[in-house]
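Changelog-linked ticket: ribulose-5-phosphate example.
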Amino acid sequence: MTTGDDPVKLMKQQVGKAAAERVQSGSIVGLGTGSTTAYAIQFLGDRLKSGELKDIKGVPTSFQASVLAKQYGIPLTTLDEIDHIDIAIDGADEVDPQHNLIKGGGAAHTREKVVDSLAAQFIVVVDSSKIVDRLGSTFAVPVEVLPMAIAPVTRAVQKLGGQPELRMGVKKDGPVITDQGNMVLDVKFEAIDNPAELEKTLNNIPGVLENGLFVGLADLVLVGEIENEQPKVRQM
Ligand code: 5RP
């Protein structure tokens, strides 16, 4: 194995590269957020630099994606300037057998859902640790909330059986503030029997902007794995 001795890094790198290889010249590309997508953005930049890929435009899902795209020389555009997205590449925190997702580990799920849902093809890139039998097994559902509505939304999700926790910053005192200036409640549910229903119910609470359940959106899930000490990418 290479890339230090970190197998998770290696899986993320390989799966990010595999997704970036699927992008064709002339495409408008949704650029997801997170450490796995960061590798895809890097490889897209490499392909542009080598001349193998031409004339793509990226639609970033976060400040992180736009900073990385600039760093790797990917021209950016906005949803005001385009009328379609050909392909979006994005990570996930959990993937179930129906390809439903929990996203929002980077607090970017609101913009991610806008961009990923507009893409003709939405490719999810994950390492094998993200595959679960049932959503909510390992990860809480991130819910972006207007700051003035944190108290009532906290009570509302408790009534739904969730255990909310205000996400706190790392290397920043106080709560995480999203790219839109909101806060995030990470809501742990004992069991998510019907993700589609819960996605709608959460978004119906006044003060909630968006939640991290992505139901029926993924077209393709690429999974990075290590087999016999070698990195491998498979389609789920
Ligand atoms: C950000 C996301 C990320 O895509 C998700 O958290 C996965 O991140 P990583 O690839 O770093 O594991 O949803 O809001």
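Closing comment: Example verified and attached. The first helix runs from residue 7 to 20. The pocket of ribulose-5-phosphate is lined by residues 32-37, 90-93, 103-109, 112 (CB under 6 Å).
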